[in-house]
């Protein structure tokens, strides 16, 4: 079965410090990968998605970047965090290609980031 | 472009009462629709989804949703609320045919009172 792991679960970082959140998927190959952010009291915002190694699409301009160095690894980064970067970050994956299973997105447990 | 509107950011029901969480969508093509649940400090878990076929979809934990094209709605219901149903619920519509990207609603926080 497929599993998704992301870490760290909780992070408190000062303004201006770097960020690295990691996500890995097991039990599948060549998945679509996603980073979502959920700010307090708000819905989910898609930040980045990737359909393959080195292929990253950004949904909104922001202070963050994403990379996919390996097929099942997705990293969310920042060089200098802002207060507004605080939130709950969710990594997710889905199967590429046609078929009903390709339409479901599966989420990791999330990472709480507090920028102070 | 697809979008999702969830009516009511907070819904409160008594234990044993009917749960009704509303979701309306706009889509230029027949949509794929989803309901996810998020328990405190956790990721999202798929409750149910509508892709094609039967418009009444049954999901986990006794939840179901009905796709009504004429009303552009996909409301989530459960006949009898349980305390463990307290969580945030998100409706989502599939945005495009590639990448399975979803557009989420703002979420509805469900409180279940004893």
Which descriptors apply to this entry?
heterodimer, A: 116 residues, mainly beta, 7-stranded mixed sheet, 0% helix, 55% strand, B: 114 residues, 5-stranded antiparallel sheet, 11 strands
User: What is the element string of chain A, with H for helices and E for strands?
Assistant: EEEEEEEEEEE
**Multimeric status of the protein:** heterodimer
Helix and strand string of chain B, N-terminal first? EEEEEEEEEEE
Distance between the termini of chain B: 41 Å
Q: Strand percentage of chain A, roughly?
A: over 45%
How far apart, in Å, are the first and last alpha carbons of chain A? 38 Å
Overall outline of chain A:
globular
The description of the largest β-sheet of chain B is: 6 strands, mixed
What this model shows, in words?
The complex is a heterodimer of chains A (116) and B (114). Chain A is mainly β and 116 residues long. Helix content of chain A is 0%, strand content 55%. Chain A is built from no helices and eleven strands. Chain A has strands spanning 3-7, 10-13, 19-26, 32-38, 44-52, 55-58, 65-70, 73-78, 87-94, 106-107, 111-115. In chain A, the strands form two sheets. In chain A, strands 2, 4, 5, 6, 9, 10 and 11 form a seven-stranded mixed sheet that branches. In chain A, strand 4 (32-38) and strand 5 form a beta hairpin. Chain A is globular and about 40 Å long. The N and C termini of chain A lie far apart (38 Å). With 114 residues, chain B is an all-beta fold. Chain B is 0% helix and 54% strand. Chain B is built from no helices and eleven strands. Chain B has strands at residues 3-7, 10-14, 19-26, 33-38, 44-50, 56-58, 64-68, 73-78, 87-94, 102-104, 108-113. In chain B, strand 7 (64-68) and strand 8 form a beta hairpin. The N and C termini of chain B lie far apart (41 Å). The model of chain B has no long low-confidence stretch (mean pLDDT 89).
């Amino acid at each position: 079965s497929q599993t998704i792991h992301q870490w760290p679960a909780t992070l408190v970082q000062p303004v201006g410090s770097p960020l690295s959140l990691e996500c890995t998927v097991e039990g599948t190959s060549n998945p679509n990968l996603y980073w979502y952010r959920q700010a307090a009291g708000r819905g989910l915002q898609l930040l980045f998605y990737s359909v393959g190694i080195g292929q990253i699409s950004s949904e909104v301009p922001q202070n963050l970047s994403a990379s996919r160095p390996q097929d099942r690894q997705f990293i969310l980064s920042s060089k200098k965090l802002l207060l507004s970067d605080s939130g709950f970050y969710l990594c997710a994956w889905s199967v590429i290609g046609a078929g009903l299973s390709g339409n479901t997105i599966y989420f990791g447990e999330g990472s709480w980031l507090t920028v102070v | 472009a697809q979008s999702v509107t969830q009516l009511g950011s907070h819904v409160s029901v008594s234990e044993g009462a009917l749960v009704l969480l509303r979701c309306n969508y706009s889509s230029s093509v027949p949509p794929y629709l989803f309901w996810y649940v998020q328990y405190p400090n956790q990721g999202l878990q798929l409750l149910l989804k509508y892709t094609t076929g039967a418009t009444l979809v049954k999901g986990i934990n006794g939840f179901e949703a009905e796709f009504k094209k004429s009303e552009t709605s996909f409301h989530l219901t459960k006949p009898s609320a349980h305390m463990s149903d307290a969580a945030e619920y998100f409706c989502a519509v599939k945005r495009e045919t590639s990448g399975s990207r979803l557009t989420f609603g703002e979420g509805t926080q469900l409180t279940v009172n004893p």
